[in-house]
Amino acid sequence: MKTNYEIRYAAHPEDAKSYDTARLRRDFLIEKVFTADEVNMVYSMYDRMVVGGAMPVAETLRLEAIDPLKAPFFLTRREMGIYNVGGPGVVKAGDAAFELGYKEALYLGSGDREVTFASKDAGNPAKFYFNSLTAHRNYPDKKVTKADAVVAHMGSLEGSNDRNINKMLVNQVLPTCQLQMGMTELLPGSVWNTMPAHVHSRRMEAYFYFEVPEDQAVCHFMGEVDETRHIWMKGDQAVLSPEWSIHSAAATHNYTFIWGMGGENLDYGDQDFSKITDLK
User: Fold this and answer.
1) Of 54, 126, 156, 241, which is least packed with CB atoms within 10 Å of its CB?
2) Are the C-beta atoms of 244 and 201 separated by less than 8 Å?
3) Which of 142, 18, 2 lies closest to 58, judged by CA?
4) Cα torsion for 128, 131, 132, 133, to the nearest 10°?
5) Which DSSP string corresponds to 147-171?
């Protein structure tokens, strides 16, 4: 197996205004989340979130303590949320084993133990997408399915944003330190997410887009309300969203995305909204 990681530094919003397309993609887009028999990670200086993916095919993969953590185990001072967006797989954390099917999630609390990822069928490998944040205390590991989620139906087909927000790794379902994760599914005919746009300066966010057909694309919007930018994305790609940035998207097809947040509070509704007509 192989573990790849890179460090992404935080940007001031005044500086980001001058970024060209290449710089925006370099600093915020995570193009390669999954590679066969590798673990890929981005260590972001935005709330020190780690965004990554593990795709075990021919072997079992270990969650290694990358050098920036300066810790004996990856979870020594961290919590983690994992979603399986591939075939059936197994995540082992210490002596516990958790079977995850498609769109099922797992929360891992902090504490010294080895974590491994495995697929049940190499012909249909699991794809484990994860977010990790620093944690000040330990909470129990727990598997969470869509049946456990707090579901919010929002939008309408007329507004092209008919969607279900599945709040899964949130404090209404289980205790966490900083981490909140969920999965938003857009219904056929709908393409817009997170409208009206908002920011929450108390926490950053990462989006992972999937169920995007190979010949289709997602246009992710970021930046300040009066100074927006866009990043074109494919399926199985992720993007970092700073605390000062909006985070929204429209696509050429309906899609699903996983959102992960971390920062100062766990109040999902703590958002500063902007009028759609104020976007520039």
Assistant:
1) 156
2) yes
3) 2
4) -170
5) GGSEEEEE--TTTT--EEEEEEEST
